[in-house]
Amino acid sequence: MKTNPNTNKTDPLLTVYMSKLVQGGSTTIYRFSLNTSIPSPWKVCSTEHDEVSSFQAFSHPCNNYTSRMTVCVSREYRPYPSWMITSGLCDPRHGWTQEFSFYVAASSQQNSRRLYFAQCHQRPHPSRLCVKTPGCGFSSGPDGPLKGSFYTPLPSDPSSAAKTKASKTSGFNPCSGGVCGRPAVRPLVDTGAMVFVVFGILGVNRSENRENHVIGDMGSVMLDPEFDIFKEMGHLCKICKAVGANRKLVKPGGAQCLPSGNKLSSVLPLLHPECHSLPEPNLLPGQLSHGAVGMHGGKVRWLSMAFESTTYKGKSSFQTYSDFLQWENFIQEQLASLPQTSALQRGFQTCEHWKQIFMEIIGVESALWSLLLSLAICVAAVSVFTAHPLLLLPVLITIIGVICLVVAVMYWLGWEMGAVEAISLSILVGSSVDYCLHLVEGYLLAGETVSLMPGQSSVRESQFLS
């Protein structure tokens, strides 16, 4: 067994070495030893023949390594002794005595390998250890004390079961001394809509844009000449705190009132007492704030505060529209509380996600109106072509029934009414009217055919009598 010089305690791991003696036509003898030296004429076992030259085990039960294996030796066989390995006891009737024992695992463990053992039935009945072959070529019967398998720790990790290398956080106690440290904040991820509260911009001037093109000039920004960031510093800090503290609208750590790397954040507390303890954003290392300022002529002309909204981007447009109304109402309340002379009252909130939801809401409403229009056109067309008010009724019932069935299935499946669903419903009107209209046409043609049959039969009867 090994001894650790640092602790002067016995290491529970031991290494079992194997060597072999090839005797020509006789059975090969395998030797088990805890000593690294190999006497002559024994040779080291080769891994080319599925053999094991050494393996590690435990000197006493440790964790899941609790299966005891015993190495027995018999000196009754001449000229060399014979070794065997067993999960039971050595049989003294055949001269087997215990050499040493070790402990292994009966099932697979982390950082372990499986070894097979078996005893030869021919004299001198040695045991062989192999890596891949059950029975090791000696026996193909069921497992028992003299044949089976076990698991040992891998040589590359000699302390896989007994000793685990201590990590840097091993034994760390954040609440040592009776006081717990602050837990790490969760960094912001781009799953919520980023809402910007903008001051110093009145709007966009598009009056000079004469080109009717989708990628033409977007216009020029109209700046507020009365906006003075130093004059409005206290009100700006107050709005930043109020919006950042609204947990219904802003995620914790989602307030990004100032741009990254700007020296303005270090001098704000000196400019106004309201600017103390501004909310700090939870940003990843290297991640920049979405807040921004616009400079012109060495003066700050506009300011944009960014807030990570609780609005999930995957919600439907109609649900997100309610979030937009909450943002709009809250910002208007904050601006209304400012003095009448403040230029911040012309501030506004904007978000790239709002544009997407408004486009989808307009698309859905337009598709629903087109559904009603196509239904009206369909009813008018059927009335003109059939010229029968009573036959219009089954056509109308069929169309409305198909639409109601599809809407009910969408509701049961939990689908949200989006642009694709609304357009599909408008197309469904034209698809459902076709079949039932053919049925009505067939009914009318069949009625005309039946009305002609009695006259034809009377003509044939008169011809027969004449």
Automatic annotation (TrEMBL):
- Keyword Transmembrane applies: yes
**Coiled coil regions, renumbered to chain:** none
Sorted keywords for this record are: Membrane, Transmembrane, Transmembrane helix
Query: Where do the TM regions start and end?
Result: 367-385, 391-413
Which residues belong to any copy of the DUF7023 domain? 7-192
Which domain of life, per UniProt? Eukaryota
Q: Does the keyword Membrane apply?
A: yes
* One Pfam family linked to the record: DUF7023
The protein's name is Protein dispatched 3
Q: What organism is recorded for this protein?
A: Characodon lateralis
